[in-house]
Amino acid sequence: MTKEPVAVVGIGQTKHVAARRDVSIAGLVREAARRALDDAHLAWADIDAVVIGKAPDFFEGVMMPELYLADALGAVGKPMLRVHTAGSVGGSTALVAANLVAARVHRTVLTLAFEKQSESNAMWGLSLPIPFQQPLLAGAGGFFAPHVRAYMRRTGAPDTIGSLVAYKDRRNALKNPYAHLHEADLTLEKVQASPMLWDPIRYSETCPSSDGACAMVLTDRTGAARAPHPPAWVHGGAMRSEPTLFAGKDFVSPQAGKDCAADVYHQAGITDPRREIDAVEMYVPFSWYEPMWLENLGFADEGEGWKLTESGLTELDGGLPVNPSGGVLSTNPIGASGMIRFAEAALQVRGRAGEHQVDGARRALGHAYGGGAQFFAMWLVGAEPPAR
Ligand SMILES: CC(=O)SCCNC(=O)CCNC(=O)[C@H](O)C(C)(C)COP(=O)(O)OP(=O)(O)OC[C@H]1O[C@@H](n2cnc3c(N)ncnc32)[C@H](O)[C@@H]1OP(=O)(O)O
Questions:
Q1: Mean pLDDT calculated for residue range 99-125
Q2: ipTM for the complex?
Q3: I need a labelling partner for 9 at 20 to 30 A (CA). Which of 201, 203, 205, 315 fits?
Q4: Cα–Cα dist 284/337, whole Å
Q5: What architecture is domain 7-121+208-226?
Q6: Which atom of ligand 1 is the closest one to the Cα of 204?
């Protein structure tokens, strides 16, 4: 039996900020969900199931928050499911929801991901005291900085690349009203002069810690036909995982990421991603991950990703715009960040991205990764229904 085509008919985000002190976690998720329903012109009663995701409970210090969120998300009396794959969870959550529609288990599913990091401290939440480990592994930046160094050494990339990415993404964020950081007076020189946090990652080359939520309404062909705005259609979606550490693990370009991208392209009939994909929302928490993922996702040959960044190809008006929304570098409510990438890709092909719209975007890739670069989730969405 063929799969049911899956359409994204509703998208909602909160305005991401350092601290949403005016709402509880329940209030935060409800705000995003309400906006997604409004976009789809649907009511809570139209939703058959809810799939929710967030990163580790350690981030807010609230154990299993989903246990009390059913009411806020209109899920009382309906199936509700939580997904967890660390930082990639927003992407995996959307894929689990999409698969429920594709398998005809449910017709219309609300999917949502969130993080309210102001209620904890992600840096120290991510510095787990594992016995016999070197003690200076401070936060995600401390973990990923050596892999960035390895990339620079392997490729000979000049040390200006990271600042070019950061400057681009922060300027794109100025066009996105939901982005956390709006630094109108930032210059490339200021990025390059910002304090070094985790060598070679500077303050302006790292993501902030954000409070935020993102929600989407996914539905079948019948639901899409009733939608008030053009839907985004899922052409391919995949997840892959690998352990944090194993002999031969390539931290610069993990095999699981390559395999995940290849699977998505195969499902979507993409043979030349650089030319066939119009916009990419890629999970870049530290700026150097843009050239690294350009290679991992098959947009550039190994060792060449930084050249695409340097050439301006990934700018909003370039041939392959990367993170038109401002990306994770401008907004990082960790659990929600993967879903924001998926949602922003969908906004692009729906033609509803506002000021950060990529002209004529017909196919876009949403990408998420998490853990020790070990969980990957991606989807490719299009303006037209899938041909097969
Ligand atoms: C899979 C993954 O997602 S891996 C990534 C996981 N996430 C991280 O590692 C988070 C990395 N970031 C951090 O740890 C912190 O944001 C730091 C260290 C960069 C800054 O720490 P703090 O100064 O304590 O940040 P805090 O959240 O209190 O924010 C203070 C102000 O600085 C701003 N800010 C925070 N980070 C940044 C940044 N990188 N660049 C510019 N401004 C920033 C905030 O918006 C806030 O401004 P506001 O008061 O006007 O809203």
A1: 92
A2: 0.98
A3: 315
A4: 10
A5: 3-Layer(aba) Sandwich (3.40)
A6: 40
